[in-house]
Amino acid sequence: MDSKKFFDIIKIDQTLFSLPFAYIGIVLGGGASFKIWIWVTIALFAARTAGMCFNRVIDAEFDAINPRTANRHIPSGAVEKKTIWITAIISSLVLIFCAWMINYLCFYLSFLAVFILVTYSFLKRFSVTTHFYLGFIEAAAPIGGYFAAAGYFDLFPIIPGAAIMFWIAGFDILYATQDEDFDKSAGLYSIPAKIGKTKALIVSIICYVLAVVSLIFMGYFWIADRTYYVMLLLVVVVLASQQFIIWVKGDDPKAIKYLFALNKFIAPLIFVGILL
After folding, report:
1. For the chain, what is the largest distance between any 2 Cα atoms, rounded to a whole number of angstroms?
2. What is the DSSP string of the chain?
3. How many Å apart are CA 51 and CA 121, to the nearest integer?
């Protein structure tokens, strides 16, 4: 598999913009040595790679019959399933190794991380909670970053973890609106397919509100200054813009691309607010 196909499968741009998730946890955990920052970076890259590969190979049968995804690498025959499986397994082992190099707590939790990466792709076959499960997966980044820096278990990172979880769940609901009809016909579970697009968008708004509330609580408990809240206000603007686009231009094929473009700003804004 050449590098272009590899980076396209794992969505390298999304991986790079996910790094602030973990970095937020490191800063909140009191900071860490340069070595820890490197291991956390590699671990997150490995986790994202494993997650995307598991998703692509497990969902290949549905991707093949969905007009929107039929041209993906496995359904189109550009890449073999075996290659993606091997990449997923190697990436999982890299994640576990990086966690072992950080500390024992992260090492033990890395097996749970691999488990949820594998099981996520199956959940849509059984439950509409798949959106929140994806949010839980992304929430593992700031929580893991915190544990990497602190070296011990603490409940505090649950707050930034909740913010990430609700944000990602809300965004995934927006993303799932484009597959509402297909999910119904294929017997897959999603909130848009279950309750319809309009009600699903309302659920997404609620998720975004809960994400913002969690970020406010994080600032309060962490005694953040004005800079953090300025960044938080910008995050609110981005989230509101996403909702505006999907409500007004939801039928435009480019709408989802606009959502992804805006989504890339959120984690960096939160990270910069915390760092400053």
Report:
1. 53
2. --HHHHHHHHTHHHHHHHHHHHHHHHHHTT---HHHHHHHHHHHHHHHHHHHHHHHHHTHHHHHH-TTTTTSHHHHTSS-HHHHHHHHHHHHHHHHHHHHHH-HHHHHHHHHHHHHHHHHHHHTTT-TTHHHHHHHHHHHHHHHHHHHHH-S--STTHHHHHHHHHHHHHHHHHHHGGGHHHHHHHT---HHHHH-HHHHHHHHHHHHHHHHHHHHHHHHHTT--HHHHHHHHHHHHHHHHHHHHHHHHTTSTTHHHHHHHHHTTHHHHHHHHHH-
3. 9
The burial class, CB within 10 Å (0-12 / 13-18 / 19+), for 127 is middle
Compute CA 178 distance to the chain's CA centroid, rounded to the nearest angstrom.
18
Tokens matching residue 247:
């409500």
Total count of residues recorded for the chain = 276
pLDDT at position 141 is: 92
Report if pTM > 0.70. yes
* Cβ atoms of 233 and 220 closer than 8 Å: no
Residue position matching structure tokens 């505090």: 156
As a three-state string, the secondary structure of 39-84 is HHHHHHHHHHHHHHHHHHHHCHHHHHHCCCCCCCHHHHCCCCHHHH
Thinking of the domain 3-275, which architecture would CATH place it in? Answer: Orthogonal Bundle (1.10)
Q: What is the pLDDT of residues 43-94, one digit of tens each?
A: 999 999 999 999 999 988 888 888 887 887 788 777 888 888 999 999 999 9
**CA-based nearest residue to 151, from 96, 109, 211:** 109
